[in-house]
Amino acid sequence: MEGGSVPRTTLPDLTPDRLSAESVSRLSQAAALLRKAERPVRVLRAVAWGPEVAERFFAAGETELPQITYPRMSAAPVHEVLAAARALIDGDGPVQAWLRRIADVIAISADMLQALGTKEFHRLSVQLYGSPDTDLLECDVTPLDLARQLDQVLSSFVGVELNLDSTGEVKTSAVDLGARMDGILKRHFGDSAPKIEIVDHLSANALAGSRYIRLRRAAVFSDRDLAQLVQHEAFVHIATSLNGAAQSAFPILGAGHAGTTRTQEGLAVFAEIISGAMDPSRLLRLADRALAIKMSMEGANFLELYAYFRERTKDKGAAFENARRVVRGGMVEGGAPFTKDGVYLEGLVRVHNFLRIAVQETRVDTIRLLFAGKIDIDDMPAITTLAANGLCVFPRFMPPWAKDLRFMLSYIAYSAFLNRMNLEKVRVHYKDMLSRCAPPVVDRPGPQAPDPGSAVDQTASPAGKDA
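The structure corresponding to this sequence follows.
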């Protein structure tokens, strides 16, 4: 052999990422069984409240705890299918570890739904979704720390004019919003575009599935809702659902089980930020949910949570919905919340940090593979192994900022340097300088031309709720 090189014919046996045909067959069968086990474990459907619960609550003068009856579910059939799947997962590679983790997640999810309305539901919820007290990447900070900081910083801007182009608060009906959204989605997804449905009864103002986005007919939407719904629900959640459904070798990639929620919601919130769709009220709402989960963990009941949200919103319907999200599936008496809504902030931190390191390590391939289906960041060794073996197809649908990474790469490459600076010294320097500035001027300039890089323009390009 010239130069001591290894013949290409021996590479499949020497490359650790190469899967044998027999292994692929067994693991693919296991993935299909995991998909079968996951299908009846519909968490959000099981914890949902009917519209009559809110009607009774308001009819009673907002003074009585809601009375909820949850469906009974047996986890035994799910565990039976999972046992068959586990029997097919042999070996210790990244794909095997990924499938075993999915099996564990589905098992815990089924057990959690079997415990609806109890403290055991909450304990299992923490296993799946973490809690506001979860340590973030062993960095001695928690989602609760982030929620408190966001609350402290953003609340101070209430009443401050932040949009100099604004001519007043613009409200849009569900019908008008749906019509505008429909055009954006058809340009982005083509024949696979989700259907816009205007419905009379919906617990939230908007709710998305893999094939639809539903809007509550009586709801009114702000000027930011269109961009946020498109970036979050369509360009991330629906895109990863459609891309996952195309993964025929490993259909479990199309399943939005609890093991993918942190990354999926974190990616969707990051999409709102990187596209310019995010606003302070939206970020405060995410922080409030984490704070309310902590309140419920410490014993606050539904009425106390409702009062907390009433202080923070003029809309009593929104206050009810926010309190409902915290206690759904758990106990309205307090002490046992559903912790899923804590993953928005935790997931955002995890996704943002992953993207920073992926850029530094020149692994932009992994950034785009985040959209290949319903996956968790920690699944990436398995996903790249599948891709290397031709078993994970490249995602067809991605948001504009992921298709064209030039802005994000530039932003992250620069912002990574800021972490090397002593932020406390920076804070002291500029705080001292600002303390010597004259008071703010209340006058505002006249209207300016719209920013061509705005979030609305991004959502309109052909190239973003359980939100």
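The longest strand covers residues 195-199.
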